[in-house]
């Protein structure tokens, strides 16, 4: 039996979108491949709210995160971490020999604009990474405020992880002053895993030119240069199956559902889970910074999360346990991609039945 996924990626994919993954292959050097890629870039600019260039990578989002920190740090990177995925960005820098320092806050709290200002005022850093929506804690960072601070430092390349928020929450890449904004296909975009997308600003282009060892497959400057020269084709063979499905899904998101409606639907799903969590448990993150795509619930009743998930599985549903050190201390319910408020209500009703809540 298929379990309906309420986990923060991979998500359930709509059957018509899934079908596009099995279209017959075309040559990756064909005009049609260029057309599809160009269209994907135009659509993604709307999701990111940017005029800058778009790059895709046949890797999950982690690939572009690693590529960003390696390709664009000339001096030293400041990694602002609010959880597991922020920490992962630090590990990527260190393992690529990129000089970096990590600024981590207590899990459940956001990165504050004051903290960013204080770190950048030292003048030591020329690249920063920030997590928009931290999937391990359920926190969404205050990007309006953080963006205003980063603007005071024009030499800093601003990298943002929107892997679990893109296409589920409004992103204002140009307004925030973000240079490299990264998303994966298997979260709120609603596709199978295996491809990722990012913005790449002119400032990032100029910076990358100053960095000598950018690697190869994930050298963002070489991807950028190639698509300029070759009409949106890529140096190596991309996952054309993902491209077929992505073009189709982005048309649905932007032209059929509409971005505003989609974001509203995500907030509605989130409100339902949050109200339920407040009634029966507690919300893990600081309530001023809650994610719209997933809710991290504090396990105040000390329920056996694995047993709950097993019982849910028998009924055709799956949620997530807490991430890393939060395993058993929290559990996570995603309300992203195509998940409707009605499906969220249905899931919560089943959880109520299993746990005997009312
Ligand atoms: C899932 C996730 C990642 C990792 O993305 P992959 O596509 O699995 O490589 C990074 N950051 C956040 C916030 C995520 O939710």
TrEMBL record:
The keyword Transcription does not apply. It holds the Pfam family Aminotran_5. Coiled coil: none annotated. Keywords: Aminotransferase, Pyridoxal phosphate, Transferase. The lineage of its organism: Bacteria, Bacillati, Bacillota, Clostridia, Eubacteriales. Its cofactor is pyridoxal 5'-phosphate. Residues 26-344 form the Aminotransferase class V domain. Belongs to the class-V pyridoxal-phosphate-dependent aminotransferase family. Substrate binds at residue 332. One of its GO terms (molecular function) is L-serine-pyruvate transaminase activity. InterPro entries: Aminotrans_V_dom, PyrdxlP-dep_Trfase, PyrdxlP-dep_Trfase_major, PyrdxlP-dep_Trfase_small, SP_NH2Trfase/AEP_transaminase. It comes from Clostridium senegalense. This is Alanine--glyoxylate aminotransferase family protein. GO terms for biological process: glycine biosynthetic process, by transamination of glyoxylate. The modification N6-(pyridoxal phosphate)lysine is found at residue 187.
